[in-house]
């Protein structure tokens, strides 16, 4: 197969590897940059200190970069709420309008004028709008794919169900309707849509009219994550991992701190919870400090020591979509997993064989207490899960699938445009 010119549109450079999205993007591009000429066009990483290292790391893969001097606006502070209010006047969802910047649009337009592009790849659904703004009438005559890390409408539907007041629920419904309209266009207009699970692919076909959908699952670096047999686990230590600037993880952390951990400690007084992740807001830091048995470990360089030490990974998600890389990383490291149904969805894992799955908060509490009292049984389950992950979720296998998608997109005949 010929070497393609692939232009990837994304939020930021995928480094350091501190979020599921960055981990996925980095690992797939690392394996495909040797086969194709890949260029990332993106915004500046919000942390200026990491931006320089990110550019060096991505270029070391053989990926070219075009980084515009504008970071995506913060999700905190008065300016954030002002932008939320202003979005009421926009036909686009907030996540789309704040990512579709004129600076990146101009960079994409200039790249299209100066370089032959075989495949445009939108690495997150909102960046389909950047491509539409940049190419305009030429978009139907272009070959492009869109990567759905989540079906965003599903997340917003779950936000609606979890909203705790009527005003918030009303605003979320506005976002839900906008995302449903936007995703219906993006998934059906793209030459190929890419989902991270069979469940998401089925949803994209059924509810959004997508007819060209491929599945490229989330994965794990099985050489990086492996059991550390020389470290003793603390059966009573629950580990929560996630990016704390993502609202579903914030919601899950609140559930852990206000309900799950206190109820577990009523039965196991020495139980603890480690919350490990990047960019925790100040309010979450304060809530952790106020919760007995909870510890926050923010922006750690390596999560593997925590996976080795904890008794099990706890995934109390009630809002989400796609699939959880953290579960794959835990199982690859031999760490048992206790999860909600939402947390475990999208993964080809069998409840009670590869991990424990709870349908209600009461079941999650019972599962966590049982895991503390029966660590040997949970260890056997984790080993079965590790074998499943090794056979099914290696990045090498998944990169082959994305390579197939790009090659199929490049071969699709398109109508000439005026």
Automatic annotation (TrEMBL):
InterPro entries referenced in this protein's UniProt entry, alphabetically: Glyco_trans_4-like_N
Ranges of residues in domain Glycosyltransferase subfamily 4-like N-terminal: 22-219
Pfam families: Glyco_trans_1_4, Glyco_trans_4_4
Superkingdom of this protein's organism: Bacteria
CDD domains associated with the record: GT4_PimA-like
GO molecular function, one term: glycosyltransferase activity
Protein name in UniProt: Glycosyltransferase subfamily 4-like N-terminal domain-containing protein
Organism: Frigoriglobus tundricola
């Amino acid at each position: 197969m010929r070497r393609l010119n692939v232009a990837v549109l994304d939020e930021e450079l995928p480094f350091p590897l501190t979020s599921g999205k960055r981990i996925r993007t980095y690992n797939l591009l690392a394996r495909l940059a040797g086969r194709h000429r890949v260029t990332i066009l993106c915004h500046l990483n919000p942390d200026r200190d990491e931006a320089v290292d990110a550019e060096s790391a991505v270029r070391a893969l053989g990926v070219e970069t075009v980084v515009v001097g504008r970071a995506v606006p913060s999700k905190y502070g008065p300016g954030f709420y002002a932008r939320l209010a202003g979005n009421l006047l926009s036909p686009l969802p907030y996540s789309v309008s704040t990512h579709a910047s004129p600076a990146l649009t101009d960079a994409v337009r200039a790249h299209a004028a100066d370089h032959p592009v075989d495949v445009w790849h939108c690495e997150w659904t909102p960046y389909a709008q950047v491509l539409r703004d940049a190419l305009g009438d030429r978009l139907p005559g272009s070959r492009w794919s869109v990567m759905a890390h989540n079906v965003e409408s599903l997340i917003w539907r779950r936000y609606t169900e979890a909203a705790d007041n009527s005003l918030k629920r009303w605003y979320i419904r506005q976002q839900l309707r906008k995302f449903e309209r936007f995703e219906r266009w993006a998934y059906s207009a793209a030459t190929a849509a890419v989902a991270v699970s069979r469940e998401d692919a089925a949803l994209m076909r059924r509810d959004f009219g997508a007819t060209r959908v491929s599945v490229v699952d989330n994965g794990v670096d099985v050489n990086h994550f492996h059991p550390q047999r020389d470290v003793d686990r603390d059966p009573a230590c629950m580990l929560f991992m996630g990016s704390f600037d993502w609202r579903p993880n914030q919601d899950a952390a609140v559930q852990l701190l206000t309900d799950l951990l206190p109820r577990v400690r009523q039965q196991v007084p020495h139980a603890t919870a480690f919350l490990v992740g990047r960019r925790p807001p100040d309010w979450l830091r304060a809530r952790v400090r106020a919760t007995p048995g909870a510890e926050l470990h923010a922006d750690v360089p390596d999560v593997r020591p925590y996976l080795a030490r904890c008794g099990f990974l706890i995934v109390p998600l009630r809002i989400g979509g796609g699939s959880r890389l953290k579960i794959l990383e835990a199982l690859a490291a031999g760490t048992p997993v206790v999860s909600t149904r939402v947390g475990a969805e999208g993964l080809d894992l069998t409840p009670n064989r590869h991990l424990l799955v709870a349908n209600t908060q009461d079941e999650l509490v019972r599962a966590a207490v049982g895991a503390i009292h029966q660590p040997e049984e949970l260890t056997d389950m984790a080993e079965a899960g590790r074998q499943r992950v090794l056979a099914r979720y290696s990045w090498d296998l998944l990169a082959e699938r994305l390579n197939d998608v790009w090659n199929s997109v490049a071969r699709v005949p398109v109508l000439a445009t005026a």
